[in-house]
Amino acid sequence: xxxxFFILFGVTLFSACNENYLDIKPEDQIxxxxxxKTKEDALASVNAIYSNLRTWDLAAFSPMILSIASDDxxxxxxxxxxxxxTDINNFTFTSATGIIEGYWxxxxxxxxxxxxxxxxxPNITMDEALKTRLLAEARFLRAHHYFNLxxxxxxxxxxxxxxxxxxxxxxxxxxxxxxxxxxxxxKFADENLPANYGATDIGRATKGAAKGFEAKVNMYLGxxxxxxxxxxxxxxxxxxxxxxxxxxxxxxxxxxxxxxxEVQCTYVSGxxxxxxxxxxxxxxxxxxxxxxxxxxxxxxxxxYEAGDLRRDATIIYRGxxxxxxxxxxxxxxxxxxxxxxxxxxxxIGNCSEGSEQNIRIMRFAEVLxxxxxxxxxxxxxxxxxxxxxxxxxxxGLPALVSMSKEQLxxxxxxxxxxxxxxxxxxxxxxxxxxxxxxxxxxLGFTSGKNEVFPIPSVAISLSNGVLTQNPRx
Length: 473
Fold this sequence. Notes:
Layout: E1 12-14, E2 29-31, H1 39-52, H2 56-60, H3 64-68, E3 73-76, H4 84-90, H5 98-120, H6 128-153, H7 175-192, H8 207-221, H9 224-235, E4 259-263, H10 272-275, H11 279-283, E5 293-296, H12 298-303, H13 310-314, E6 315-317, E7 336-338, E8 359-363, H14 364-377, H15 381-394, H16 405-420, H17 426-432, H18 436-440, H19 457-462
Parallel strand pairs: 1-2
Antiparallel strand pairs: 3-5, 4-8, 6-7
Helix pairs in contact: 1-5, 1-6, 5-6, 6-7, 7-8, 8-9, 9-14, 14-15, 14-16, 15-16
């Protein structure tokens, strides 16, 4: 299926900011007052938000903190390379840990791009239906960034647009206020995005993506009736599961029937800088297909049920031959690697491993698991079993049968881990389930502290103390 490649050629937008953590002044700038004049400018500004999703702090190194902090993954690579990830793995990180600041600033850069679009497109004379759709896309993407922030840091400053007074140095909003802001953006997106697009626009946010994220946000809030309602709607929109689990993550099945939302990556002839997300490059088999970071743990490998097809589709083992025919060397720095980030040798292309590999953000399998969890929590055991068993049967496992509510809750949580291993949700799932010490205590997780990451010290310093730190950091 053809996918749209989002890039704003030759133009990087910025607005005048104070010297603080939202200040963005890249090269080759066009100030906003010289832009946002035409429909083409409006489209280009939204495309720039999508393109930004592939950047280093959003797609490559920084998001690994969410994976390496869990029992699913370890640092990987060679022992001395990027040793700061060891602090993430052992919960010895501090507010000065640079990789955490990268994740923070990467999300806010995305929010800044969204706000430029949201603030300026309304003033452009253009087709009103297209204008509304573009605003809905921008608000969906802003919600995506804020959702990433609130899960990782708790309450953060809310920027609803470009401040008229130019003051970006705002205090933190409460976690509840941030979640309400996210839900308002997603509601607007849900009401104004199309269910699908033509071939030239594949990859843009859809109504199904908005509803899927509305379900996930409400899952974190424990609003199970709403989770059930939104997932039921998505389940009626024509999505489905691909029959082969391994194929879900291969290039041939990007934007498939199972895709709710994914970051678009494709090769731009003669321009590797634009082509490369580095998502796959940073995690590929070291010395063969990448740098070898964020490797599966033995704990994850041992957690799969006997006969679960997802184990070998999630983990590349030394000495194996992949389904695509690549032999993995018997020796090396790590015994296992992330197969979901793997790009077969025949598909690497002209740049690096990441130049063609889309990044899956939400899949229909997760919608089914959210539906199962919500159904169980609201007392609908039959629906819960039906939804979770669709995922299990694809994995080659027998269907679950009737059990108590608590037993089914534990079974669904285990199913999430097996289905979504190495997809960056495990740490966040364990925290929202209230099991941080139980699951991660042996790694160094401390209750009342490590449910969130520290606000970066550089952000607090640049704010002159307006930003406050999370407890015990």
